[in-house]
Amino acid sequence: MDRLALDVAHLFAGGLVLVSFMLLYQDRMTGLVNNFALHALVVSLAVAWQAHIQHAPHLYITAAIALVVKAIVIPFALHRIIVQLGIHRTIETVVGIGQTMLAGIGLVALSIIVMLPITAKAGTLTQQDLAFALSVLLLGLLMMISRRNAVSQVVGFMSIENGLILAATGAKGMPLVVEISVAFSILIALIVIGVFLFRIRERFDTVDIHALHEYRGERP
Amino acid sequence: MAIVLDLFVQIAQMVLVLALAPLFTGFVRKTKAHLLRRQGPPLLQPYREVLRLLRKDVVLADSASWVFRVAPYLVFATTWVAAALVPTFATGLVFSYAADVIALVALLGSARFMLALAGLDVGTSFGGIGSSREMLIASLAEPAMLMVVFTLSLLAGSTQLSSIAEFMQASDVGLRFSLALALIGLIMVAIAENARIPIDNPATHLELTMVHEAMILEYSGRHLALIEAAAFLKLLLYVSVIACVFFPWGIAVSGQGPVAYVAGAGVYLLKLAAGGLLLAAFETAIAKMRVFRVPDFLGAALMLGFLATLLLFVTMAR
After folding, report:
1. Could A108 and B307 be called an inter-chain contact, meaning their C-beta atoms sit closer than 8 Å?
2. Does B173 contact A at CB distance below 8 Å?
C-alpha cells in the first residue's frame, strides 16, 4: 500500500474528527444540521476511499447508503423538524464552549493512547481508523451530555453512528448485511425520535430536556 | 568564507524585512481601499508616516515613568530580532543557531509584555483596557502558536525555522492533514496577533473595542514611530513565517550562489503580494467580532493546534 493512499485515508478520518469538533462548536440549530450533513459526507468519502484501497466493492454500497441516508435524507428531515418545532432561529446556550473543546481534546488524546498500543499488530490503516473512530464516538457522547436541546442530542447520537461506520470499514470483513441493517435502524431511530420530540414539545412546550428532570422522581 | 557569505545573507535579510515592512502594510491598505472602490493612500504613505513621526517632538505624560520611555525601543528591537530569525529568501541563517522558533515566540511575547506594561504605566483608563484585552488575547494566542510550532518541529525534527523550511522544501512531506490544521491555526493566530479585522480594527482610533491602538494612545513622536514600525514588522514577520513554512517553494538553500538568492527574493516578493491580497480580501469580506467572542475564536485556533499535534502522533506510530 503506497503512502499517498494512507495519507488520503488519514486525511478523511482526521477530517471526520475535525467536523466532530465543529459540531461541538456550533450553537445554531440550522448550522448544526448542516454541519451534521458535512459529517456524513466526510464519512461516506472516507468509506469510499477505503473501498478503493481495500478493493472491497461492497463498501461502496455502505458509502452510498451513508451519503443518501445521512447526508441528504436525515438532515432534510431534521431541518423540517426544526422548522416545525419553531426552534430554527434559536441560539442554544452551550455551557462553556472552551471547556467542552478542552474535554474533547482530552478524549481524542485518550482514544489515541488507548487504541495505538492495542492495535499495534494490525495494519497501519486499521490502527488509524480505529483510533479516529473511537475519538468520533467519544466526541458524539460528549455532545450528547453537554447539550440541553433534544435535537442536538439527536445529532450527537447520529454522529456516534458515523464513528461506528468508520470503525467497521477500518476492520476488514464486516458483512454488508450488518451495515445495511445499522443504516436502516438509524432511520427508524430518527422516526421514533422525531415522534418523541413532538410529544415532548406538546407536553412541556419546549425541547429543553431539563424540563423533564422534575418528572424523574429524584427531586421532590 | 562560507560563514562570511551566510552572515552577509543574514544582514541582507534583516535590512530587507525592515525596508519592506511599511511597504507591505501600505500595499494591504491600498488593496483594501481599492476593494471598497476608494482611491486609498499612496503605497509609500507608511514610510512618510514613520519619517514624519521621527521628526516630531515627544510629548510625555507627567505620570510617565522610565518604563514608558524604554518600552518602544525594546518592542522595536525584539520584534526586529524575531524577524531576523525568519528565512525570507534564503535558508541557513546565522542567527538561527542562536535562537529557534520557540525563542521567536518568546521574543514576540516579551515585546507584547513591554507594550502592555507601557499601556498601564501612564495610568489612563484607556491604556489599561487595551493592556488587559491584549493579555486576554495573548493568553490564548501564545499556546496556540506554540502548539503549531510543536507540530512543525515534530514533523521536521528540528526547532530551527531554517531547517523546518528546508525540510518542507526538500523532502517528500506527503499529504499531511496535520499541516493543514496547523496552517489554519497559524493564520488565526496571525490575525489575532496583528490586530487585524475580526479581532481588532487596525484603521481606527475611535472604537471602544480597540485593543492595540488603546495601548499606544499616549505615545507620540519618535516613540510612536518605533511602535508603528514594530507593528509593520510583526505583520511582515507572520506572513513570512507562513510563507517559508507552508509555501517554501523558491527559497534559496544556503550556498546556492547569487542567482538563486535573487530568484528567491523575487519569489518572496510574489508571495508577499499574494499574502497581502488575500489578507485585504479577507478583511473586506468579514465583520469585526465582539471582544467577548475573541476567546472562542482563539480557542478554536488552540484546538486546531492540539488536534494537529495529536493527529501527528497517529501518523508517526507507523
Report:
1. yes
2. no
First to last CA, chain B: 43
| CA neighbor of A161 nearest in space, from A184, A182, A192 | A182
pTM, full prediction: 0.88
Q: Which of residues 284-313 of B touch A (CB under 8 A)?
A: 295-296, 299-300, 302-303, 306-307, 310-311, 313
Residue A121 lies in a domain: yes
Set of cell numbers at residue B105:
515566540
B300 and A101 within 8 Å at the Cβ level: the answer is yes
Spell out the domain ranges in chain B.
Answer: 2-316
- Owning domain of residue A84: 3-215
Read off the amino acid at residue A105: I
Condensed to tens digits (0 to 9), the pLDDT of residues A152-171 reads 888 888 888 888 888 888 77
Dist CA B93 CA B206 (whole Å) = 42
- Check pLDDT > 70 for residue A220: no
**pLDDT, tens digit, 9 for 90 and up, residues B60-101:** 988 899 999 999 999 999 999 999 999 888 887 788 788 889
Helix (H, G, I), strand (E, B) or coil at B166: helix
Say how many domains are in chain A. Answer: 1
